[in-house]
Amino acid sequence: MISLSRPSALKAGLPPGTPIYTGGQTETEINISIVDYDKEKATFLTSQKIEDCALYKDKSTVTWINIDGLHHVNLVEKLCSCFELHPLTVEDILNTTQRPKVDVFDDYVYLVLRMHHHNEETGEINSEQVSFVLGKTFLLTFQETAGDSFDSVRIRIKQDKGRIRKMGTDYLAYVLMDSIVDNYFTVLEKVGEDMEVLEDELVEKPSTETMQTIHFMKREMILLRKSIWPLRDMVSSLRRDEIPQISPDISMFLNDLYDHTIQVMDTIETYRDMISGMLDIYLSSISNRMNEIMKVLTLFAAIFIPLTFIAGIYGMNFNAEKSPLNMPELGWYYGYPFALGLMAVVGVGMLIYFKTRKWF
Amino acid sequence: MISLSRPSALKAGLPPGTPIYTGGQTETEINISIVDYDKEKATFLTSQKIEDCALYKDKSTVTWINIDGLHHVNLVEKLCSCFELHPLTVEDILNTTQRPKVDVFDDYVYLVLRMHHHNEETGEINSEQVSFVLGKTFLLTFQETAGDSFDSVRIRIKQDKGRIRKMGTDYLAYVLMDSIVDNYFTVLEKVGEDMEVLEDELVEKPSTETMQTIHFMKREMILLRKSIWPLRDMVSSLRRDEIPQISPDISMFLNDLYDHTIQVMDTIETYRDMISGMLDIYLSSISNRMNEIMKVLTLFAAIFIPLTFIAGIYGMNFNAEKSPLNMPELGWYYGYPFALGLMAVVGVGMLIYFKTRKWF
Amino acid sequence: MISLSRPSALKAGLPPGTPIYTGGQTETEINISIVDYDKEKATFLTSQKIEDCALYKDKSTVTWINIDGLHHVNLVEKLCSCFELHPLTVEDILNTTQRPKVDVFDDYVYLVLRMHHHNEETGEINSEQVSFVLGKTFLLTFQETAGDSFDSVRIRIKQDKGRIRKMGTDYLAYVLMDSIVDNYFTVLEKVGEDMEVLEDELVEKPSTETMQTIHFMKREMILLRKSIWPLRDMVSSLRRDEIPQISPDISMFLNDLYDHTIQVMDTIETYRDMISGMLDIYLSSISNRMNEIMKVLTLFAAIFIPLTFIAGIYGMNFNAEKSPLNMPELGWYYGYPFALGLMAVVGVGMLIYFKTRKWF
Amino acid sequence: MISLSRPSALKAGLPPGTPIYTGGQTETEINISIVDYDKEKATFLTSQKIEDCALYKDKSTVTWINIDGLHHVNLVEKLCSCFELHPLTVEDILNTTQRPKVDVFDDYVYLVLRMHHHNEETGEINSEQVSFVLGKTFLLTFQETAGDSFDSVRIRIKQDKGRIRKMGTDYLAYVLMDSIVDNYFTVLEKVGEDMEVLEDELVEKPSTETMQTIHFMKREMILLRKSIWPLRDMVSSLRRDEIPQISPDISMFLNDLYDHTIQVMDTIETYRDMISGMLDIYLSSISNRMNEIMKVLTLFAAIFIPLTFIAGIYGMNFNAEKSPLNMPELGWYYGYPFALGLMAVVGVGMLIYFKTRKWF
Amino acid sequence: MISLSRPSALKAGLPPGTPIYTGGQTETEINISIVDYDKEKATFLTSQKIEDCALYKDKSTVTWINIDGLHHVNLVEKLCSCFELHPLTVEDILNTTQRPKVDVFDDYVYLVLRMHHHNEETGEINSEQVSFVLGKTFLLTFQETAGDSFDSVRIRIKQDKGRIRKMGTDYLAYVLMDSIVDNYFTVLEKVGEDMEVLEDELVEKPSTETMQTIHFMKREMILLRKSIWPLRDMVSSLRRDEIPQISPDISMFLNDLYDHTIQVMDTIETYRDMISGMLDIYLSSISNRMNEIMKVLTLFAAIFIPLTFIAGIYGMNFNAEKSPLNMPELGWYYGYPFALGLMAVVGVGMLIYFKTRKWF
After folding, report:
1. Strand A138-143 relative to strand B31-37: parallel, antiparallel, unpaired?
2. Which of D343, D265, D260, D270 has its CA nearest to residue D309?
3. Which residue ranges traverse the bilayer (chains A, B, C, D, E) (predicted)?
4. Is the pLDDT of residue D10 over 60?
5. pLDDT digits (tens, 9 = 90+) for D101-130
6. Chain D residue closest to E335 (CA)?
7. pLDDT tens figures, E150-192
8. pLDDT in tens, D285-335
């Protein structure tokens, strides 16, 4: 399940701008990967030391520093102060329950969005906050844990594929955001597959598990929607606001990114509508099934009740010796066959009647 | 059913602008049809070679090149590069899950929308992406499969009917879009007919199939709506934005097109409301029916239960010899008729009582 | 019922601007009524010939030409070409499934709206398209069938009542639109009366017919709303846009008309909410009624079941001769009264218990 | 109940600006109260003659003329023509189904809103239209019936409390509107109290009356909302539009009034949400109660059915004399106690089983 | 529970600007705390006398006066008149049912918002109105009762932590508002925990209490939403409007505050959606459970009914002596075992049949 991003109650009572890490505590090392490139060459470096980053700050080449592991608050703070980030930015980087947004500062743009992964084992969707600090010559990206969808971008830089080596940090940021949004499609496709399985299940054998799965998916959609909805505003404001760090050359790409986020939103809304429809079907098919059973059983009882009544009549002990009117049938030669026949006639008659009224 | 346009997960991890065809793979040939005309004459050509298209690129006459079969990615790319299309446009042409939109480039306008067909055999609505590349002297249209609603336009060009031969590429694009939107009406009329059939069925004999059909139609409406809603924005922005490729002469026609898309949207919304209403009726009529059956059966049982009780009483074995108080009725001369009469009175009395309270 | 304005599928595949009549085919004659007036005098003329209209085209007096019967496509077209209307206008006049809208042309304004009548006999609401072509000195109105709510306007012109004879074509158009909107109130009042009847029915004797009537009214509201909603935008744009054919003198009247359309919308929305509420009540009262019946019957059965059980016990055939323990009650002097008494005690006891728990 | 303001169908077919009174016909006298004041002195006058009003028209002091009883159409018209009101204004004053709105004329502003009273006896909310005609030196107010919430204002004028005597007609109009809006709070507080009573009832003893009360309140909220929603727009346009009759000095007061109307709207929306919630609770608690009863009764039947079956077995008449296998139990010494014991064991066993499964 | 902020009906009929306290009446003392600071030093003072406040009015240092206990209307009024507040402001301070809003006056800005506390003992959320009067050199805060979340701010001022001592009153107001908004997160986190507990309960043992808790939480969300929704507009207008008392230096902080309020809103909306989902699950799981019980019991009855019928047959008293056809089975050697066997076969047969149809 997407963990419901808990409101950052930890921070209540602290001065604004206090850097506190609000994500899950992991014990892993911090992981710094530095990529520095221009048209001519590209350098790749992995490090655990913040000092290595400082070297690249004022270089005119494009420098992309990626940090995995925000729980090393001190190291993150150190890096941030090295790049002269505003305290509110540092707070936002560490507070991993941000809504996607853009903050424009004098020297850099701060972007934050969420990355989703479909966990194959648990069937859950995990989510993680990714922060971008976009300067003229550097791009810092902060992730909660290692493991991302950026490898393809690294390969593209290494192999000088496409236009990436010829463009600036803004294009790099766009490419990374695009890979995150593309990832949403993967997650949604997985959800779509689950929905198809669920639909078949609905028709064939609806169970309480089906209900819970529907509810679970509905909830996932609520949470996905919550984290993707503001993304639209974010990309839209990137396009619209004249941000000095973002050159007009990539506006066409931002338009494309915007279209993709709209498409993600559309798909989520459509899925929500469909899941609601599935809930309706589930409820109606369950109640249909129940009704069927109850109907058959009640019909069943309805047929036997008069038969038992007939048997009850001939089980009465009226004394035939005292009066010839007292249950003469009991003394008839064909009394018993007559009684059985009467029962058969009544039973079959009722069956026919019920059948005529289409009750089963 | 309208196939739920799957999010393009195939593309995740690839650089933006990578041309990948995301539609269904069909084995048919690519199909290029070229129409070139001005006031004086019109040429029609069908070809499988891209090279034929290049000839028409800079001709001052109106050139309409229609391509069926996007799975021939190489050929499509070749054509696009020949007309100097932006890589993002090529990507969008091939990625057949686009939302309707307009992209304005320096040399051309890229338009994408969806075409719907009602499949007579399966009763499903099929949808297909159609891309328009509108330049000053050429119009490229890309379809996923052969078979379209453009034939009437071709005939009009050939026969020089209406104003089409006197106008430019923008009018041609409008006429084609208009024929696509007109087609929506055909599809909706079909849906309307299905709804009327369904309504009669609802009143006469609601069944689980009715429920599934309602659900199916609801889903179709969700998907139709998803693909037509953005069309409104698209046409609206064509009207509003000053696009150099679109001359002010056709603004009146675009207004008309806009009115039509609004009308399509209105009809879809109305249908959605109606289908919701039908679901309510279905559920209530099913539960009414069930209630009727249960009520009759329960009444039935309720009448026989006291009768059986009476029979049970006279089936008791109290020894009349030991005491004159022990079941003297059994020895009465009219004992048995009395018992039967008692049962008749009780039974008829209850029937009258139930009737009085309007229970059946 | 308001016939669901079918999307104009007939038109698919035809060039834009093709005049095709999409309304119901009636066999009646075309009916042209010409009213020509200024401050001094007013002329009334009824004709079947288009030529008569042409005479009035350039007269400086106010000329109102009303045409009933759009199925005479040729005559309508002839009239339109005489007044030099744009092909798209002619198409819109004949296509009787238009949304209310305003189209401003150089020489005239085209207005289209819907007129509703409550059919006393069938209880249905019929709707009809009315088109206005408003020029500087002429006003053309097109109706599908004869019979309208314009007679009071004709009388006012004849009798020179109010300001109508002193004003231009724009005021005349306003007066006619106002009479159409006023008519909505009549229709809504009828619906309001039906709703009150329905509410009483709901409380007194809800039946499946009640359900169907509710559904029917809900549907009527959906369709009324669909045709009146865009009217608001239309009147609003008449007020707002500076249209040369509409003089600023009548802006105050247009404001009034706007207020009326808002009021119509408000009433429709309120009715929709109320009808939804009625549906809830219906469903809950039906299920309440059903529950009542089931409860009483089940209680009934519950009381008799133990009584029958007691009778069953004393109907057992244990041999009292073989053992003094075998059913000694059967040989008691007060055996039978005891058994009957036991049943009475158990029965009454249960009644009291059920009563105590407020089960009936 | 708030009487559903019937659309003014009476007016259909009449020329715009025809003064027709659409409210309920009451037989009371017209009631004219004139208050004339400036900083120095205040005059109070009650009259039945319109002529008295004319005297005050051009006086530079603040003149407030309040008319109760719109059914005296002639008198109202006379007054209006004396103050040179536009025919559309006169029509609006008399047509008592107006939406709250502002109409700005050259010499005056026309304001219309609705006043609500909670009728202590019937528990219903009555509503009445109040019109304001605000000129530079006069304020006309028109009410349908006598009895208003303006007495406190009259007292304030008389006693020269607050700033009212120092301000112009615009402030007076504001004060009167403020007292109307304050009155909404009284009405809503009453509704709030009713809701609390209802909630307790819901938990303790839900009945069909509860359902009807909920429905009734829901309907009241729909109607209240309908009449208060446009009030917001009205006050907002008073604030925003530069109206010559309203001096900028009172803009702060209008802001305050605006805040109050928003608060009224908020409360109504919250009440609506809560009433919906109560409906859910009602339905679920009714069905819970029903289920409880059915469950207990069914359990009850389920226990007795096997017991009766056992009694049925030993009521069979197999002939023990013909075979030692035929019902030897009947001849056992402990046969009867054994049978009773068997029944007890089965009955208690089932009770335990049901208890274990938490079925009651 | 959040007490439903009652509309201020007390005020109806009073002149606007009349100061009336509408909150709960508490008997505690008024509590005035004065904090005065600049870069160099900070003074802390607690007092019960208004006169102490007057001294600080014109000092150029930052003066923060916090008043707990609005029921001392006279003292509050005295303070307000000392700081020359507008009567409408005084009214708003005392009327504790305000919507969050900003009122800009010449000399100060009036801000009002609501503070929420989760009451650990009752599990309810209490809410309280907090007013801010922000002047150039002073900040007045008014709270209904003692006990707030401002202590951390006081400590920060005392210890000169962060930038607070270097900034003006606007920053102080921001810091206080920020601490109020941060507190919402604490409250929401508590609600989130309650929801998780509730969800487990839903799955494990749904009861009527669960239903009531869900309803209670839904209601809390409605009320929280009502008080937080306008906060967004308030913060937004602080950011947007150019307010002289608020320096541009803190716009970045206001952006941050705005983001936080959006996040609070998002979380509330998400919670609302989730609670609705929980209601659906509750209803469906209750009805599932009920259905299960009814099904098993009905199956149970269905099996015994035919068995009892068989016993009834062999309990009939047909006279075997009168005819060899009369119940010969009774005289068979294996008659009784045959009957029992027949019952066993029928019972087991039905069990198998029900099992086959997956009825249990």
Report:
1. unpaired
2. D343
3. 296-314, 334-354
4. no
5. 898 888 899 999 998 888 877 778 888 899
6. D326
7. 888 888 899 887 788 989 999 999 999 999 998 898 889 888 8
8. 888 888 888 888 788 888 888 999 999 999 988 888 888 888 888 888 888
Flag if E335 and D322 touch (Cβ within 8 Å). Answer: yes
Nearest to A103 by CA among A92, A111, A91: A111
Q: What is the CATH architecture of B9-285?
A: 2-Layer Sandwich (3.30)
- Compute the radius of gyration of chain D from its Cα atoms: 35
Higher pLDDT, A341 or A204: A341
Instruction: Pick D185's closest partner by Cβ from E7, E86, E105.
Output: E7
8 A C-beta contact, residue E176 and residue E141: yes
CATH of domain B288-356: 1.20.58.340
Smallest CA–CA distance from A174 into chain B, residue: B16
Rounded Cα distance between A59 and C315, Å, is 106
> How far is the C-alpha of C200 from the C-alpha of C195, rounded, in Å?
9
Could you tell me the pLDDT band of residue B25, with boundaries at 50, 70 and 90? low
Q: How far is CA C77 from CA A151, B115, B261, C57, in A?
A: 67, 32, 25, 16
Q: Burial level of C216, CB count in 10 A (0-12/13-18/19+)?
A: middle
What DSSP designation does C106 have?
A: S
Sheet of strand C42-47: strand arrangement: C42-47, C31-37, C62-68, C138-143, C125-134, C109-118, C101-104
Instruction: Pull the structure tokens for residue E359.
Output: 């009825």
3-state secondary structure of C112: strand
What pLDDT score does B173 carry?
A: 94
Q: Tokens in use for E112?
A: 């009002």
| Cβ contacts of B327 on chain A, cutoff 8 Å | 317
- DSSP of D24-49, one letter per residue? ----PPPEEEEEEE-SS-EEEEEES-
Q: Name the token pair of B65.
A: 């090149």
Residues of E in contact with D302 (CB under 8 A): 297, 300-301
- Across the strands, what pairs with A46? A33
C17 sits in the region (left: phi over 0; alpha: psi -120 to 50; else beta) called left
Q: Could you tell me the pLDDT band of residue E347, with boundaries at 50, 70 and 90?
A: very high
Out of 2.40.50.40, 1.20.1250.20, 1.20.58.340, 3.40.225.10, select the CATH number for domain D290-356: 1.20.58.340
Answer whether A281's CB lies under 8 Å from A201's CB: no
Pick from E173, E170, E137, E136: nearest CA to E153: E173
Helix (H) or strand (E) holding B316: none
Q: Would you state the pLDDT for residue B3?
A: 41
Highest mean pLDDT among B143-157, C128-142, D21-35, E93-107: C128-142
The pLDDT assigned to A123 comes to 75
Q: Write the ipTM.
A: 0.73
The least confident of A111-115, A216-220, B195-199, C21-25 is C21-25
Mean pLDDT for A294-323 is: 86
**CA separation for the pair C279, C25 (Å, rounded):** 37
**Helices D87-94 and D73-82, axial angle in degrees (round to 10):** 150
Of the partner residues B212, B294, B336, the one whose CB lies closest to the CB of residue A325: B336
Local confidence band at D25 (pLDDT 50, 70, 90 cut-offs): low
Chain B residues inside the 8 Å CB shell of A239: none
Token output for E331 = 């005289």
CB contact under 8 A, B99 and A327: no
CATH superfamily of A291-356: Magnesium transport protein CorA, transmembrane region (1.20.58.340)
Q: Looking at the domain that runs over C289-356, which CATH code has it been given?
A: 1.20.58.340
The CA distance from C100 to C129, in Å, is 9
Domain with CATH 1.20.58.340 in chain B: 288-356
E263/B355 Cα distance (integer angstroms): 62
